User: Which sequence fits this backbone?
């Protein structure tokens, strides 16, 4: 099985721009979660999507948004970028069923640098 | 709300020495506990997990962790580390039916020759 695929792996933007990151989960996985990882804040939960619906949301401003498509692929968008948005954005998928084990399968991340 | 505290941000250790990475959690409900490992420029990989049953869980590369409910801990141990174990280790908690996993701040393990 192919793992979780995130694109792009690296990108550089300037303040005020917007960015869209993409995540393809493991085949058959219906839950996709997004995390922001920074040296100062560690891993922070952004949101989780399941069957095209946002099921959980972390404490991030409205500039951070996401969506999930019918094939479970997910995108997240950050608008009006700020310097502090520079981070590694990690996507994780999960084979959520009625017997959820909570295990997350992570992609390698998209490293965003905001100048 | 659930939370995880990793008590050591950095742990330097010599090759072949034992190591313990400490993790304490806070939760008012039953928990699933995980240790993930992150190598440079990579995502997180599951190292081991506790869901139920035996409180001692093991990984394929010699790590083990013990769930201690009374002390709300899930410390990670290895009796003899290798240079290749150098990485960042994250403890995480969630609860049955919940996909909102909370991570600790991470412990950077550096194995020195």
Assistant:
């Amino acid at each position: 099985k192919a793992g979780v695929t995130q694109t792009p792996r690296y990108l550089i933007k300037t303040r005020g721009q917007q960015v869209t990151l993409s995540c393809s989960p493991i085949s058959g996985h219906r839950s996709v979660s997004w995390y922001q990882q920074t040296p100062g804040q560690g891993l922070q939960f952004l949101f989780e999507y399941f069957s095209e619906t946002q099921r959980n949301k972390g404490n991030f401003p409205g500039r951070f948004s996401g969506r999930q498509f019918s094939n479970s692929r997910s995108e997240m968008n950050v608008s009006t970028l700020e310097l502090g948005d520079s981070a590694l954005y990690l996507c994780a998928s999960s084979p959520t069923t009625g017997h959820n084990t909570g295990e997350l399968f992570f992609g390698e991340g998209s490293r965003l640098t905001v100048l | 709300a659930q939370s995880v505290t990793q008590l050591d941000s950095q742990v330097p250790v010599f090759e072949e020495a034992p190591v313990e990475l400490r993790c304490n959690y806070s939760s008012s409900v039953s928990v699933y506990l995980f240790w993930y490992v992150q190598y440079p420029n990579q995502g997180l990989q599951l190292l081991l997990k506790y869901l139920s049953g035996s409180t001692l869980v093991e990984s394929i590369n010699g790590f083990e962790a013990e769930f201690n409910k009374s002390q709300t801990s899930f410390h990670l141990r290895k009796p003899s580390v290798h240079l290749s174990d150098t990485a960042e280790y994250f403890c995480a908690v969630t609860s049955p039916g919940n996909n909102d996993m909370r991570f600790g701040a991470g412990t950077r393990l550096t194995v020195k020759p």
Remarks:
- The CA atoms of residues 6 and 95 of chain B lie 18 Å apart.
- The radius of gyration of chain B is 13 Å.
